[in-house]
Amino acid sequence: MERSSSSLTNMIVDQPESVNDRQSSSDESFTEGSPPYEQNEGSSRNKLGKRKAIDNADYADNDETRRMTKRVKVMWTDRELLALEEGMRQHGKQWTTIKKNYGEKGQILENRSAAKLKDKARCEYHRRQRDGIEAGVFGIMDGQ
């Protein structure tokens, strides 16, 4: 079915304007004034889960300003990935056991939950498959 350009223009003009409910980046601020993610090799990772505060006054109840927070992605270090790989060699898919052995206070995976370990293993397996790299211990994630 063919339509003329004038009928398409009329369709576009007749549609109501869309509302932009997203805040501009100038309205956003970091709660700690830090970069969006932390990727320092060899540094302690004691600032996990930084949150970005977004002023959301447009949706406030009773003229009261609400603040929303959004998690900021914290990149995995090479040391964390190696610890996960070693944990998987020893314990397979027992994520809570890996967390107990490598994630206690002062250990390399202390800022990662068991669910994050599982997610990273799954993503690392798919990344290695996509890039043609030997899956290694992450091959146990095949078929889950």
UniProtKB/TrEMBL annotation:
Protein name: Myb-like domain-containing protein
Region (Disordered): 1-67
SUPFAM superfamilies for the chain: Homeodomain-like
SMART domains according to UniProt: SANT
Polar residues bias: start-end ranges: 1-32
Domain Myb-like: 72-127
Organism: Rhizophagus irregularis (strain DAOM 181602 / DAOM 197198 / MUCL 43194)
